[in-house]
Write a structure and sequence with these properties.
By secondary structure, the protein is of the alpha+beta class. About 25% of the residues lie in helices and about 10% in strands. It has a five-stranded mixed sheet with strand order 1-2-5-4-3, with no helix packed on it. Strand 1 and strand 2 (about 35-40) form a beta hairpin. Helix 1 packs across helix 5 and helix 3 runs antiparallel to helix 5 (about 140-150). It is globular and about 45 Å long. Mean pLDDT is about 80; it is low at about 5-30, about 165-180 and about 180-188.
């Protein structure tokens, strides 16, 4: 199974499945406001860590249930960032979109890539979840599903777009029953 995931990662990254990494998935992307959304926060970011990199002051962050997010809480898709806008004299509410975090728990997990798979069949995500699922910015597709799944498996970095080679000692890995020759070797 690991070989299959590795092969799919290579196919995606070599362009067999055409895609381009959008700025929102780049490791050096700045946190940006776009309309009523906030983008550029990677998974597993605590509120305390976020405060260290986000330049706006005097804001509050709330979870999906509108409860104040604790400093140790993970920022996930659907969280709200609110601040007073001095120039307009009212409260601005931004919905946070974390690339790959469809369920809003602040982490990319199996639930997230399964949600993308289900979206391809049922079209059941809300607008914010769709933005988190559209990893490459070209609409939700099997490419997004594979990128999120490979990110979860540690073979792709959603936030840097880089392939993470498996160079660890695999001596404890089970032996594969697949032949060593390429699957196309039988072609004449």
């Amino acid at each position: 199974m690991k070989k299959l995931s590795l092969c799919l990662a290579i196919l995606i990254l070599t362009g067999v499945f055409a895609f381009a990494v959008s700025p929102a998935t780049s490791a050096d992307t700045q946190i940006t406001e776009n309309g009523d959304r906030l983008y550029g926060i990677p998974e597993r970011t605590t509120l305390a860590a976020f405060r260290g990199v986000y330049s706006r002051s005097g804001y509050s962050v709330f979870d999906k249930d509108n409860k104040t997010l604790p400093e140790t809480g993970l920022i996930g898709t659907g969280c709200k960032l609110c601040y007073e806008a001095a120039d307009v004299g009212s409260t601005v509410e931004l919905t946070i979109v974390v690339t790959g975090d469809i369920d809003g728990n602040g982490k990319v997990t199996t639930t997230d890539y399964i949600a993308i798979k289900n979206q391809l069949v049922r079209n059941n995500l809300n607008d914010t979840e769709k933005l988190a699922a559209d990893v490459d910015g070209y609409g939700i597709s099997t490419t997004d599903y594979m990128k999120v799944k490979l990110h979860f498996e540690g073979l792709y970095d959603l936030y840097g777009g880089a392939f993470i080679p498996d160079v660890e000692d695999n001596s404890s890995a089970p032996e594969s029953e697949e032949p060593d020759e390429p699957w196309t070797s039988g072609w004449a």
